[in-house]
C-alpha cells in the first residue's frame, strides 16, 4: 500500500487516517482523464474500513482533500460511486457534490455487473 500511496502522492493529494497505527481510511485525487483538456479535473476516491462509517472520518478526509484541490487550482472533482453504496452517496451529497450521470452495468466485481453513479463538485 505504501508504494501505491507514494506513486499517487507525488502528483496529487493523498490523505490517510490511522487509528492505533492501523489505516482505517484514506482518500486521494488522481487524473480523471489523461487528455490535456481535462487536466483541471480530478477524480476522487475515498475508503473506510468496515465499522468506521458514520464517525465523521470520511467527511474529515474528503474536506481536507477538497480544500487542497481547491488551493491547488483544480476546477472540478468527479466521484465515481458504485450504485447502492448509500454511505458514499450520502457523504458526497453532504459535501456538495451533485449527481451527474448513471452508467448501467459498466463494472464487474466478484462476478456481478455493477452500475456506477458519477458525482461532480465544481471548485471555482
UniProtKB/TrEMBL annotation:
One of its GO terms (molecular function) is acyltransferase activity, transferring groups other than amino-acyl groups. PROSITE patterns: GNAT. Keywords: Acyltransferase, Transferase. Residues 1-124 form the N-acetyltransferase domain. The keyword Acyltransferase applies. Signal peptide: none annotated. CDD domains: NAT_SF. Pfam families: Acetyltransf_1. The keyword Acyltransferase applies. This is Phosphinothricin N-acetyltransferase.
